[in-house]
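TL;DR need structure tokens for one chain.
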Amino acid sequence: RRPRAGLVDAGRGPGAGHKGYGHEMEMKKILRIPVEEPSQVGEARRLTVPLCRLMRFSEVDIGRISLIVTEAATNLVKHAAAGELLIRTLECGGVLGLEILATDRGPGMANPARFLQDGVSTTGSPGTGLGAIVRASAKFDLFSSPGQGTVMMSRYWAGRLPRDLPARPLEIGAICLPIPGEESCGDGWAVEQDRQRSVVLACDGLGHGLDAAKASLEAERLFRIHRTRPVAEIVEMVHAGLCSTRGAAIGVLEVDHVDAVVRFCGIGNIAARIITASGERHLVSHNGIAGQEARKIQQFTYPWDDGGLVVVHSDGIATRWSLADYPGLPRRHPSVVAGVLNRDFRRGHDDSLVLVAKSRGRGAGNRG
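>> reply
TL;DR here they are.
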């Protein structure tokens, strides 16, 4: 049976911004579209257009987004046995946008830059697909390697981004998906940033479905209220506030841009790593369920290299991964890194979250 496409609830949606903070606007819905045969190219386009209209994009914007989605889906059919499109909404400074992520396990490319040039094709087509996507995108990035498939990211903004945006030292990429068959996702995330610190919450509501999503939503609300506290105190406040819910695993991670350290505090099965040129470091989380039982709430501190990145994920993502197995991947945009980990390590029998953060200016992209 052909996998079904669907619009699933995979996040909380934009919250109120906070003075002095760069609020990372999250997706309210994520459009997940399997692409395995030519008929699904048109289906991908037809599913994307209503989402664009719901966001009140202009006809010009809808045309450009349709082009990106059509070319991305066409490439999946041509070059991969099975692929997937993940399309999520964005907001920055009051400007709405979409992120289109195309992932596959196809043969991959030894020289991806060559295929970004018009006229280069391995299938006898005109070879303008990737070039057309790059030209239509505000930001574009791609990871591909022989035997490791391809993950392509395109971001499109329906307007010019303001020049006076609040400071956001880290760029964020995140994929949050419910278990197959569910519309509500029990995993969630939130990010708050200013010039001095970036603070990340990852949460996994116990079980899955609507009640798990309610626990995750409450964790995010409490996180935003207490965001200025030290990370252990944030976790204590969230733990105390989740007593009326079924509970959740939570992790709060802070990057201190002044002291160049990472502070992390977790309850339950939230995994976190710091990846630098010298290797990968696993961060420590204590057993328990926030809102039910937490025998020990403890903050751990680690050195931070501004050229590194952090990865946080729920137990819907298997832990036996290493970015060292993907040469060049840590240099890509965080959404591309998240796309690779989601594609290769999503368990498929639980809600899943993978969030990647890295210093701005380090990733690849064409503009925006």
